[in-house]
Amino acid sequence: MKRHIVMIGMMGAGKTAVGSELARQLRVSFTDSDAEIETAAAMSVSEIFARDGEAFFRDRETQILARILQGRPGVVSTGGGAWMQAGNRELIAARGLSVWLKCDLVTLWQRVRQRSTRPLLRTADPKGTLARLIEQRYPTYAEADITFDANSNDSIETAARRLIAQIRREVPGLLEAK
Ligand SMILES: Nc1ncnc2c1ncn2[C@@H]1O[C@H](COP(=O)(O)OP(=O)(O)OP(=O)(O)O)[C@@H](O)[C@H]1O
Ligand SMILES: O=C(O)C1=C[C@@H](O)[C@@H](O)[C@H](O)C1
Ligand SMILES: [Mg+2]
Fold first, then answer.
1. Which of 90, 82, 128, 93 is nearest to 5 (CA)?
2. Among 18, 21, 159, 176, which has the highest number of CB atoms less than 10 A from its own CB?
3. Nearest residue CA, atom 1 of ligand 2?
4. ipTM of the complex
């Protein structure tokens, strides 16, 4: 693979789940920026938000992304907010193919509602917060190189296979070239 494949999109879109399966099918490495930040800090994303604040988390996210992207090309899953910073978009564009996992509110809500691991959704009306984030972010997510329909009822394995087919169609040669 010539470039990284970088998964972007909302919380619950499947960046981690589909991204790790994609890496498995392509036999390349998988790195998740949220997980890397957690390992480096020995704290969960929620704990970092609570202790050091979102701005601190965003700085760490940029540093970690830059480091990951310097490595050998693989699949990289980002946190949902990473793509919203212009500097991060430039870093990603320089070394990777960006893939937006596009997903609607109903599906996202089904996937994130049970878990309390997303600090941005700890509000009085988490579904409303999710809806507002969708409105704010979708025009910018739409700037990604590839938009993948992540709504379908496909299994994670089938979704990854469908994404590989789409990348082969839209960016011929990317997966084959060493
Ligand atoms: N295509 C899919 N089919 C079925 N379940 C899915 C699919 N995509 C994601 N999920 C499930 O939805 C949940 C959220 O997915 P995941 O953690 O991959 O989202 P994410 O985009 O990485 O979110 P975050 O930005 O919070 O890290 C997981 O339980 C995952 O297994
Ligand atoms: O959408 C977001 O801004 C976030 C998504 C998660 O992946 C984490 O990076 C964090 O919870 C923030
Ligand atoms: Mg994730």
1. 93
2. 18
3. 80
4. 0.95
